[in-house]
Amino acid sequence: MGRKDGPKAGLAEANAGIPTPNSTLHEIIGKFQAVGLSISQMVALSGGHTIGRARCESFADRLSNFKGTGAPDPTMDPNMLSELQKKCPQGTVTDDNNVTLVPLDRNSIDLFDNNYFKNLINSKGLLGSDQSLFSNISGSDAAQLTNDLVISFSNNAGIFTTSFVDAIIKMGQINVHTGADNGEIRKNCRSPNSLGVAS
User: Fold this and answer.
1) 6: left (phi over 0), alpha (psi -120 to 50) or beta
2) Which residues is 184 bridged to in the sheet?
3) pLDDT of residue 104 exceeding 50
4) What pLDDT band is residue 9 in, cutting at 50, 70 and 90?
5) pTM for this structure?
6) How far is CA 75 from the centre of its chain?
């Protein structure tokens, strides 16, 4: 009854297709459209960041050297900036056993809701890629559409939830293999059955 996946696992291909924490709005839109997802679906799926945490390194440039300026990101809420600079001191080196994690949604850390979008409106998006979905600066039609969607989702949790469900179903159908000889239902989703458990 499981989804069929392809017979090879491509880490490099997956990493190339996923936006980075510092991706621009244009880059994010391009990566989602490359797999058949619309801008509306992209914004809805981004709302999944209402749950989860990020390493300091994912947003460190916004705290001290935004786009190589040697200064913090001027669009970040000043109180949030000060708090994050204390949690993630410049030059801090961490490893997998000593990692500072910061909630992606500072308002409701482990609750699936629409506060993520309220954060964006208040310049409190943690990742640069998240904050790029909302800007007070007028720009392209795509930027205006993402702004409008962020406002709509922030005002109506029901619209966000419905849009998220529709978008994640669509995302789950990307590259689904069908037919007896096309793909397999993996015993471990991280690797093809022929390889056993992924390292």
Assistant:
1) beta
2) 5
3) yes
4) low
5) 0.83
6) 19
